Amino acid sequence: MSRPRIVLVRYDEIGLKGKNRSFFESRLIDHIRRKLADMEGVRYRRPRGRILVDIDETQVDECVRRLRMIPGIVSFSVGVPIRPDVDSIAELGIQWIEPLLASGKPLTFYARTQRSDKTFPITSPDFSYQVGAKILQKLHDKGLSAEFKTPEFVLEIEIGHEETVAFQGRVPGIRGLPVSSGGEVLTLLSGGIDSPVAAFMVIRRGCRSHFVFFDNQAFLGRGGFDKTHRLAKIVNRYQWGGRLCVVPFGNLQTAIRDLCTPAHRVVLYRRMMYRIAHALAEKYGCLALVTGESIGQVASQTLENLAAVSCTVPLSVFRPLIGMDKKDIIDEAKKIGTYDVSIEPHPDCCSVFMPPNPAIRSKVDQLEADEERYPWKDLMREAIENMQVFDLDRS
Ligand code: ATP
Ligand code: MG
Q: How far apart are CA 125 and CA 134, in angstroms?
């Protein structure tokens, strides 16, 4: 039989939220349950200020991998449940530390105890001291010494009402707030590097993101959809319950190409993307749009052009990358696992029918004059009618 392990999950930021604390905690535990749902025999407990997850030794690696993707977790540790007596814990500490001394290199260590059970008869410093002294007694000759300030190895002991756990090390979580504690948003997701990172950033702040992709399959083939669908699924792993709406965009783009000022094309595409996204946000109860735009990255992202696009919708538009350098965005994309898919070669629909000199400072009245020249309302209705929706937890 494999041996039991306990994962101690820490979540500082939620702890700070006063009366909302139990709301945030239940959102977080709900997400953890969903993430680990297919792992057999897992149990959950919720002593104050912590979530404890009971697993067994064989489930540790998978559990660590999944918990690292859950917003709201500051850090976690995988520990061993143990009797709260000095001898048992010292023995476990010796088992962990002795192999580290095998090379002959000296090692510094420290034992640290926290008690949530204040009725426990020994104080935390005394308990740490007694455990530490036992370990030192056994391993001092092999090169172990105690060090308070910057020990290389810290044996941690948590003495709770129900259970005592010993562990070593903390795995960093992605921090932020639990998913769905902050409401729903709609991210405009292209197949590029930026928009998946933008979506991740709002998901980490507790929003559930749905996604919309504007697809020009007639000109670009199915590759754009495949890529964006994979990206949406990767980002959806940091949350659950996301939808991807795929809106056919070819007819709108062709009309803009044929009937409007060439220099305005990209900004006109964008205005239509925002309008359609707004209609979908209303349909799905999303309170804001999210994009991967950042100032000056491309011609359509000057302040003037961003303003000329934003003014088409009454919704908040979040641009979490607005002040970031491309290099930092790339680093983030690598961390969240979207970069390799994003760089697969496939053009985005905005690059279709690109004029030689796109306008850098569009004027809204001129854009509106262009929009008189093509039946955007009809084409918008048609695009929404022909949209496909994918449930990202399933498909
Ligand atoms: P990305 O890397 O996210 O594609 P980008 O630097 O290529 O961004 P643009 O192509 O100007 O910049 O796109 C800016 C933003 O507009 C994107 O981050 C995305 O939010 C949205 N967007 C662009 N094309 C599409 C599309 N085909 N479907 C949905 N959203 C799009
Ligand atoms: Mg792009």
A: 14
**Residue of 188, 301, 351 to test ligand 1 pocket, by largest number of atoms within 8 Å of CB:** 188
Q: Specify the 3-state DSSP secondary structure of 317.
A: strand
Which-ligand-closest: CA of 248? 1
pLDDT at res. 77: 96
CB 184 near ligand 1, within 6 Å:
no
Q: Whose CA is nearest to atom 4 of ligand 1?
A: 192
pLDDT digits (tens, 9 = 90+) for 332-390: 999 999 999 999 987 776 777 788 788 888 899 999 999 999 999 999 999 999 999 99
Share of the chain above pLDDT 70, in %: 97
How far, in Å, is the centroid of ligand 2 from the Cα of 291?
A: 10
CA distance 232 to 219: 22
CA separation for the pair 80, 73 (Å, rounded): 20
Ligand 1 pocket mutation, candidates 348, 351, 354, 387, criterion most atoms within 8 A of CB: 348
Residue of 313, 179, 181, 316 lying closest to 242 (CA atoms): 179
Q: How many C-beta atoms lie closer than 10 Å to residue 198's C-beta? A: 27
The residue ranges of DSSP E strands in 161-232, in sequence order, are 164-167, 171-172, 184-188, 208-215
Centre of ligand 2 to C-alpha 174, Å, is 26
Q: Do domains 4-172 and 184-391 have the same CATH topology?
A: no
How are strands ordered across the β-sheet holding 243-248?
A: 316-318, 288-290, 184-188, 208-215, 243-248, 388-391
**What is the C-alpha to C-alpha distance for residues 83 and 29, in angstroms, rounded to an integer?**
26
Sketch the domain layout of the chain as residue ranges.
4-172, 184-391
Cβ 211 under 6 angstroms from ligand 1 = no
Q: Is residue 109 pLDDT above 90, yes or no?
A: yes
Q: Does domain 184-391 have CATH number 3.40.50.620?
A: yes
d(CA 388, CA 72): 32
In short, whether 304's Cβ falls inside 6 Å of ligand 1 is: no
Measured on CA atoms in the order 119, 125, 130, 131, is the torsion positive or negative? Answer: positive
Distance in angstroms (rounded) separating the CA atoms of residues 159 and 103: 33
**Residue whose structure tokens are 């399959």:** 217
Nearest residue by C-alpha to atom 7 in ligand 1: 192
Q: Which two tokens stand for residue 361?
A: 């400072």
Q: Does domain 4-172 have CATH number 3.30.2130.30?
A: yes
